[in-house]
Write a structure and sequence with these properties.
This protein is of the alpha+beta class. Helix content is about 25%, strand content about 35%.
Length: about 350
């Protein structure tokens, strides 16, 4: 379930990329980076140089293409939308169309029109239509754009599972970090170039840049100044001006690019790595990088809560179990000192 993509194009934007498609792959990027253009190029709608399929006309490319909004014909029934991909008379291809709908779990809805189907069912009709081409690669352009937040995870989890069952590699252009987290492989597009790719666990744990961190949904992104290096104690000290707070990170070389004293760098920390005081107060390892602030918001989501902490001129987000919030009797307006382990702070010299 793999495919290498190596292509360059000049119009409508300049783009030069080289990356792997592994299983269900998310091409993650902000609006205007060229994600949809890249998908359209692979589909044969935009000319490019490279591989795969370079030089082949669209009708000869072994791809399935799901555009934004699925582009179903509203006046045709589900099976007729699928049969349309075969060309010729629709009725002649009814059996093949229903068989494809059955492969995506929609045989019972074959005679319904798009308006009678849910968003997830419409997506599966579009998938069945794409499968009519017996594709070697499935292309999806912003597959979550027409889905509401409440149903997105269920629908996309089902789609990813379906692609695994069919054994077809897929490339999904998206700005949705949630979809990227469900994927087998993530390719991060920033500044119109590939800045990172790999399994989601690795990419989310260590973004390659602050731009990648933003795309991956890391909300805590700030700047700091290098204050000093303390080799005898194994740390480098930063000054976080917005919060008027000193922070320690693992020791960096003063001669490393961007790490000279006085240099400005970008840094980030996941809300999961911002810790409330531990229930057991004798755990000194949790007391790294104390940061004081006032609680602005508490958003409860099942057994966990997301908390917005005002630290000087900055807003720091953290996630914690509701039981820990209750244990500390935290509420909007409470002051609290949280901690961020030095090893969990990610820094990118400018």
């Amino acid at each position: 379930m793999g495919q290498r993509v190596r292509l360059s194009l000049r119009e409508p934007i300049a783009l030069n990329v080289d990356f792997q498609v592994q299983g269900f792959t998310a091409l993650l990027g902000a609006s205007g980076e060229g994600k949809s253009t890249l998908i359209k190029a692979l589909a044969g709608l935009v000319p490019y140089d490279g591989e795969p399929f370079g030089g082949l006309p669209p009708q000869r490319r072994p791809i399935g293409y799901l555009p934004q909004g699925y582009a179903l014909f509203p006046h045709l029934r589900a099976w007729e939308n699928v049969a349309y991909a075969f060309g010729g008379a629709l009725k002649a291809h009814r059996q093949q169309a229903v068989s494809l709908l059955d492969s995506v779990g929609l045989a019972a809805q074959a005679d319904l029109r798009p308006a009678q189907l849910s968003g997830g069912q419409q997506q599966r009709v579009a998938l069945a239509r794409a499968l009519a081409r017996s594709p070697q690669l499935l292309l999806l352009d912003e597959p979550t754009s027409a889905l509401d937040v409440n149903t997105r995870d269920d629908i996309m989890a089902e789609l990813v599972s379906r692609m695994h069952q069919l054994g077809i590699p897929a490339l999904a252009a998206t700005h949705d970090a949630g979809l990227a987290a469900m994927s087998d492989w993530v390719v991060v597009l920033a500044g119109r170039r590939i800045v990172q790719q790999g399994p989601p666990r690795e990419v989310f744990a260590r973004p390659a840049s602050v731009a990648a961190a933003a795309l991956l949904g890391v909300r805590n992104r700030f700047t700091a100044t290098v204050l000093r290096h303390v080799p005898e104690q194994g740390y480098t000290e930063l000054h976080w001006e917005e919060a008027a707070t000193a922070l320690r990170v693992p020791l960096q070389s003063a001669t490393a690019p961007g790490w000279a004293v006085g240099s400005t760098l970008d840094w980030a920390v996941s809300p999961d790595d911002v810790r409330l005081p531990p229930l057991k107060t004798d755990r000194a390892d949790d007391a790294e990088n104390p940061i004081a602030g006032t609680i602005e918001h508490i958003i409860v989501q099942e057994a966990s809560a997301t908390v917005a902490l005002r630290c000087g001129g900055a807003r720091l987000w953290l996630r914690a179990p509701v039981r820990l919030i209750a244990h500390h009797d935290l509420r909007v307006g409470s002051t609290v000192t949280v901690h961020a382990r030095a090893a969990q702070l990610q820094c990118w010299p400018r």
